[in-house]
Amino acid sequence: MTKDAATTRVCFQLLIHPELLDEYIERHSPVWPEMLAEIEAAGRRNYSLFLGEGGRLIGYYETDDDAAAQEYLARSEVAARWEAEMGRFFVALDGRPDQAATPLTEIFHLDDQLTAARGAASEHPSPTDPAHEEGTTS
Fold first, then answer.
1. Distance between CA atoms of residues 13 and 102, nearest Å
2. What is the 3-state secondary structure (H, E, C) of the chain?
3. 6-42 burial by CB neighbour count: b if 16+ within 10 A, else e?
4. Does the predicted TM-score (pTM) go above 0.85?
5. What PANTHER family is this protein classified in (predicted)?
6. 8-107 domain in CATH 3.30.70.920?
7. Closest listed residue to residue 101, CA positions, set 109, 89, 118
């Protein structure tokens, strides 16, 4: 599978108060159906949350236009209600969790590098390629 040129991958980290972890997990099992619909309508897909030691939460999603998705959710009454309820779970967060989380910088993506490597390989055949052997005709 290759990445569409317009797709943006977003990863972020937040810290959950350790004493509220069980409740936070419960609140996501399941998320309100109307909030799920708003996330989808905003253009976010392949959205996951991962919980690490000490309440470290890593989120990941893909979108074609992250600014538009952020703007859509900022105007959403459903998202505003959800985020108002979720805000108390996070340590040292200034603002709504969906808008205040700082995205992490992506430094490696397997599909991108495989695509680039395959493109470079097709432009420069390897020395073991039969087309490079002396006396080989095309």
1. 7
2. CCCCCCCEEEEEEEEECHHHHHHHHHHCCCCCHHHHHHHHHHCCEEEEEEECHHHEEEEEEEECCHHHHHHHHHHCHHHHHHHHHHHHHECCCCCCHHHHCCECCCCCCHHHHHHHHHHHHHHCCCCCCHHHCCCCCC
3. eebebebebebeeeeeeebeeeeeeeeeebeebbeeb
4. no
5. L-RHAMNOSE MUTAROTASE
6. no
7. 89
Q: From CA 54, how far away is CA 48, in angstroms rounded?
A: 19
Report yes or no: 10 and 84 within 8 Å, Cβ to Cβ: no
